[in-house]
Structures are given as C-alpha cells and as structure tokens.
Amino acid sequence: MEKIVYNVTVKIADSVESDWIKWMEKVHIPAVMETACFESAQFQKILRQDDDGGNSYAIQYLCPSMKTLHGYQVHHAQRLQKEHHEKFEGHYVAFRTLMEVKRFY
C-alpha cells in the first residue's frame, strides 16, 4: 500500500509566531483533518535556527494514497491555503513536499 506524507514547511515571523501556533493547533490542522483525506498529522518545530529571524515548522500529514491526496488538492487545498494566507500574509514563507513512505518500522 502506497502511503504519502504531505509535508508543509513554514517559516513564520517572530511577531506572529505565538498566534500562528495557536491558530494552527486549534483551527487549521483540525480543518485539514476534517477533510478526511489524511490518517494523521504531526506538528513539529525545526530546531535549526536561521540568523535572519523567525522559526520554521513542519506539518506532516499522512495520506493513504496519491489518489486521496489528489482529491485533497482538487477539493480542499486552495480554500485552506487561502485562509492561511489571508490571516498571516507577509509574515511567512511556505513550501510543500510529497514523500512516498517506503516502509514502516
């Protein structure tokens, strides 16, 4: 069975970090999980610190298949990303990666 990790890495400005964390934990991540496209989620702070301020976080969603992920991207991603952008515009940089899970140990 092919499982996919949908990873979103976000660098957030110090000035909004506390509000962003609360919003991610109480609003955004639950909204993503309510789409029923993902089996689980992890919210992680990246320990490496850059000299230019802000902290980085990785949010990883475990998806059962590429087909399910495609459904998420078609039906939900734009709306959820827009909400994030409107709330934190100018205070973050984000990028997304997909990873195929080869084996669980």
Q: List unreliable stretches of 5+ residues.
A: none
Number of domains: 1
- Please report the number of helical segments: 2
What is the helix/strand order?
EHEEHE
Alpha-beta content class? alpha+beta
- Highest CATH level, the class: Alpha Beta
CATH topology: Alpha-Beta Plaits
What this model shows, in words?
By secondary structure, this protein is of the alpha+beta class. It has one domain: Alpha-Beta Plaits (2-Layer Sandwich). Helix content is 38%, strand content 33%. The chain has 2 helices and 4 strands, in the order βαββαβ. It has a 4-stranded antiparallel β-sheet with strand order 2-3-1-4, covered by helices on one side. Helix 1 packs antiparallel against helix 2. The mean pLDDT is 95.
Summarize it.
The chain is an alpha+beta fold. The chain contains 2 helices and 4 strands. It has a single domain (3-101), classed as Alpha-Beta Plaits (2-Layer Sandwich).
Which helices and strands occur, and which strands form pairs?
Blueprint: E1 3-12, H1 17-33, E2 40-45, E3 55-63, H2 66-88, E4 92-101
Task: List the keywords.
Alpha-Beta Plaits, alpha+beta, 2 helices, four-stranded antiparallel beta sheet, globular, 105 residues, single chain
